[in-house]
Hints:
single chain, alpha/beta, Rossmann fold, Methionyl-tRNA Fmet Formyltransferase, Chain A, domain 2, 2 domains, seven-stranded mixed β-sheet, 15 strands, 25% helix, elongated
Amino acid sequence: MRLVFMGTPDFAVPSLQALVKGGHDVVGVFTQPDRPAGRGKKLKPSPIKVVAEELGLPVYQPDKIKTPEGIQLLRTLAPESIIVVAYGQILSREILQLPSKGCINVHASLLPAYRGAAPIHWAVMQGETHTGVTTMLMDEGLDTGDMLLKGEILISNEATTGEIHDELASLGGKLLIDTLSELELGRLFATPQTGKSNYAPLLKRDHEHLDWSRKAAELHHQIRGLNPWPGAFTTFRGENLKIWRSAPFLDTDKNVEAEGTRFEPRTSNLDRVKAAEPGQILQVLEDSLVVQTGDGVLKILEVQPAGKRAMLARDFFNGRHGQVGEIFA
């Protein structure tokens, strides 16, 4: 099929590679303009631009795709379909109606759940046990188009957004090829989105801050949902501290199994928990710090002080000559 591809970040790379490997005629790759990055603020190409150039594909980087010039360029390329994977620009109605087989989007959720810009982060942060990828025919709404195919994966209680991102990116490439194959054979028909929907907005600074009055389970999901970017944070003695890894605390003396989400074990060997404040450090274990939350306790495994490398939470605490009873703010 004659295609134009639109995408920008790493998530889109497996989809572009799959199209080329699958023998599709990718006549143009559209991606965001190079952006300043690093301390030197040198212009850095998007991951899609790098891969497209390695594949010998023509690359276009308009500031805005919806301009008359951008639309005319698309008309000249005359794609049968436009494939959009995390492009970062909104397509106008004129563009959506341009290709004969429509515009197909690869979205990193099981629609209609988690429409929006950060579906992977929010699925992990909300403690979902499964997620997936949906291909859909795009319309003018925000991820509201009719669905084509879905692929699903499980989310373990330890998985981070980075791990789920990579798994979904690979799945997205495979699902896209299946979608195009079924469409060409005339065996695939789009179905409207029905059922409960929610929104996965761009992350803000407030989403990164750990509120220790929340449940241990919720804090753990937040920590792994913000790993590897942008990272959950707290403060210790007035210093910002990223929290990269955590785990449920289990009463190993009695081998108590946690209930529900596996984060609410009884803590009978920590009688002082009842009087502890949220954020208070209760114990220093060999592999972690045990911290009181608003409901239950949580093990903090890995942290990163501002301007320093990531390290074991115990090493950070000992390096600061920390005392049991101190509090993460």
